[in-house]
Structures are given as C-alpha cells and as structure tokens.
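Annex B. Sample input.
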Amino acid sequence: MATMVPPQKGVEYIFYVFLVSQANQRLFQVNPTLASGDVTVTTDGNAVTNLDTLPDVDPDGSVFVKVTVSATEMNGDNIAIRFCDAAGDEWCDLGAGIQTSGQSFDAMDTNIDDIETVTAALASLDAIADAVWDEVLTGAVHNAATSAGRRLRTAGDSLIIREETCQAGGGNAEVILDTGASGVDDFYVNDLVLLVAGTGSGQARHIDDYDHASFTCTVNRDWTTNPDETTDYVIRTGSTVHVHDFETEAKAAINAEVVDTLSVDTIPELSVGIPVATPTIETALMLLYMATRNKLTTTASELGIYNDAGTKIAKKALADDGTTYTEDEMASGA
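Annex B, continued. Sample output.
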C-alpha cells in the first residue's frame, strides 16, 4: 500500500483529524456536522479559500474526520488548514499545518529500486561486454553476410594462421609448436610468432625456419625469456619482409637498384639559367660534368659553360687587377 509520508508537493494528500466537542472538551465530537465554509485553506500564505473537498466523517457515525487536500492545494511548501464551526455550537476550532516534500518515502524507495536496477543492469552490461569479447568466432555461428562477427572472423583468419599452446620449451631462439601445427617444412617461414600468454608473453619474433618433424620454429633472434609448455602463441601471416632480411634479399635488391642507377640511368643536361646555391646531387654533378666535358670559353672578363648543342647555359665574370684574380658568382648564360 502506498504511503503519504512525508506529504508530497503537488500530490493529493489525505489525513484524519478529531474535532473536540464544545459541550464537553474532554471528548471528541461524535459525527460532527461539517458545512461549506467550515474548512478553509491557504497555500504558502496566499488567498484563503474553502477546501476543494469538504471533509466528512468516515466511517459514518464516528469521531474520525477524513480530510482530502487536492494536488492544487498541495502545490506549495507550507499548507495551512483552519477548521471553524460556522454554526458555532458543536465543535471547537482546529488548525492543521502541512509542510511538503519533493518526494514521498514510496518515491524515494522507487528511486532506490531504480538505482539498484540500473546498478544491476550495469553489472549485466559488464557481463555482456565480457561475453562479447570472450565469444569464440566460428563460421557456424558468425557467418551472416556483412555482420561484425563474420568480418572480425574473416579478418582474423586472413592474419592469424595458428593460435595454440606450445607443447614444450626449446632453445634460446626456438619455439616448439603444438602437435597440430603444419606438417610441411618451412610452412611458417617469414611469418611472425607472438607469445600472448604464459611464460615469455609479450614477445614477438620472425620465423626463419620450421621443422615439421619436431614442430620447431627457429626465430630471428634469441628470446628474452624462452617459451615453455605454458606459453600461448599466435602465428600471424603477411610478415614476409623482415628487418633482418636486409642482410640477404633486401640487400641484394637495393644493391641491384644502386647499380642500375649508376650504370643505366642518365642525367639530362642543365638548361640556361642561374645555378642555385643549394642544388640536388644530380644538378651539381651535371654542372661539373658539363664544365669538364662541353665547350668552355674564357676571356679576360668572362668564363662561359656550354651545353652539347653549343648554347651558353651559365657564365661568371672574371677580373684581374694584377694583384687579385677574382671569379664572380655564376650567372645565367643568357
């Protein structure tokens, strides 16, 4: 059953009073007569009006007077009610004051229940989130087209080719896979093995060799902490270019490119213009080459550099006063 404690602002409030008999003030008036104008009310000191609902005796013939204060009359902080017998000869005057609250105990209890519900829901959400992250993704249950589950699963499948627990420890630069690993030699070469749990977790190495008979991978450098039978590993594909390969395949490829650049590629001649102060290596080399290979003219006042077609591309002024020989900064040959 709902309670009305404390009285709530803006909410209808019902309470009971007992009117003292004028004939014998030691007794409550039995079945007191109540008429319009006998009971008035003021809300927060505003105009005094008759109570919307005239109180009545309940149960009939008793001393219990039921008083109902409407939601409108309760819409204030302090409600004052006056009982005054208009006939003036049956019961004594009475006053009642009501101080309202923003919420009743029932509402407060409901709010507490709501908080507990939300708290429980949050705990449930945590459990749901944990379950989502711990959910095993398989083609049987996560295969709806364009779904997040399918895309995560296929993305993982395209990167992770094995995920298991090592069967034993190995050498300083070894990891011994589970017995379900590939039966093909060098199957995992150039892939990346990551130790994700157990002994040595948090390390990663590139695989240089794989012996299927012993399920042993040889990695590119020693482990800081060697894995053992408690170690969970993941092998990720797509890691075919290794840093340590710079000493082998990458080195040869780079060397071939350098040889090709030096032996095959050509540099175009410079056009007419002022040589810049901060040239590229290509420009600087070509200027020196043109100065030594092509036509070069020197007069008492000018040095000129020409292209293969005989056009002067750059020049510098010369001066000799018998004491100092001076060559000015190179200018355009135009």
